[in-house]
Amino acid sequence: MTKTGRFWTLRYIIINATYFAVYSGIHAYASVFLLEKGFSNTLIGITLALANILSVLFQPMIAGLIDKQGKLTNRNVSMASTALLLLGSVLLLIIKSGVVVIFIIFALIYMVQMVYQPIITAMYFEYEAAGCHIYYGLARGLGSCGFAVVSFFTGRMIGRFGVTVLMVLDIIFLSIALVVLYFFKKPETPKAASSDESETAHNNLFVFIKTYPSFMLFVAGAVCFFFAHNAINDYMIQIITPLGGTESQMGTAVFIAALLELPTMALIDKIMKKITVKNLLLISGTAFLIKTALMLIAPNMVVVYVSQAMQMFAYAVFIPAGAYFVNQTMARLDQVKGQAYINCSITLGGVFSSLVCGRLLDIKGPHFMLIVSLAVTAAGLVIAFLALRVLGKSEEKRS
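Request: output the structure for the sequence above.
Response:
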C-alpha cells in the first residue's frame, strides 16, 4: 500500500471504528439501557421497530438525493448524522427519567445511525473512483474490531458504573468522528464526461425493482437472515440469562463475534478471487442459519460463544460481499441506493424481529423466539438461492 493509500485508509478506519463503537452503545446494549430506564420487553420491541421502520423509509430517500450528485454528498450526510447522534447522546445523558421522552430520543438516534451506515460504504466507492485508494476490507474489519473492543469493556463498565457509561462513550467517539469527517475531503476532480449524461438514476422503487429483480429478491431473503441476527443482538441478555449469563459475559459474546469479523473482512479481496460474490452471499446465509441453530440448542455460555464465532462466516462475509455485489450489479447512479437497500435488509430484519420477538419473549420466552428465528432464516436461505442462482442466471442469459 502506498503512503497516500495508507493516509486515506487510516482516516477511513477511524470513521468506521468510531461508527461501530457507537453502534455498540446504541444497538448491542439497547435492551440493557432501556430495561434500566423502565421499559418492558414489548416496549423495547416497539421502540426498535419504530426506529427501523423510519430508517427503511429514509434510507432510499436520502440515497436517491445523494445519487443525484448535488450538494447532498456522502460526506455531508455523514457529518450531519454524526452531529445528530452527538446531540441525542448528550440529551440521553442529561435526562434521567421519563419513558416517553427517552422513547422518542432513543428511537430517533437508532434510526439516524441506521440511515448513516450504507452511506459510509458508498463513500468508499466514491472516494476510490476519485483516486483515493482505500483498503476497504481492512477498514471495515477494524470497524468491527472497534465494536468488539468497546463491547467487551462496556459490559464490564456497566456493571461498575451503570448504563450512563453508554452515552459517555458515545459522546467521546462521536466527537472524534465529527472531527475526522470534517477533514475527510475528497480531492477536486473534473466534472463527469458527457457519456455520464446518458446514465439514468432509477429513483422510483418499482422501476428499481424492474431493473434489478434478482438483487431485490435477494434483499428479501437477506431480511430473513437479519431477523435472527437482530433478535440475537437486541435480546442477547434475555437469551443468556436463563443459561446463567451476565452483562459481563454478554460483552464477551459480542466481543468474540465482532473480533472474528476482522480476518474475514481484511482478506475479502483475496477470498473474492477464489469464490464469486454470489456464492459468498449464499455461504453467508448458511452461516446465519448455523449460528441461529447453535444459539437455540446452547446449554451453556460455551456454546453461545461458539455460535457467536460463526459471525466470521455470516455477517463478516455478508457485509463486504453485499457491498461489492452492488458495485458489480448496478449503474453508477444507482449504487448509493443499492447500498441503502442492502442496509434496508438489515433494518427490515430488525423491524420484524423487534415487532415479533419482543412479544414472543414476554409470552413464550427466548427458546421459542429462537425457534421462530431459525425457521425464518431457513426461508431466507431458500429465497436467496432462488435470487442468486436461478433468477440471476436467467438475467445473465438475457444480457
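The first helix runs from residue 3 to 28.
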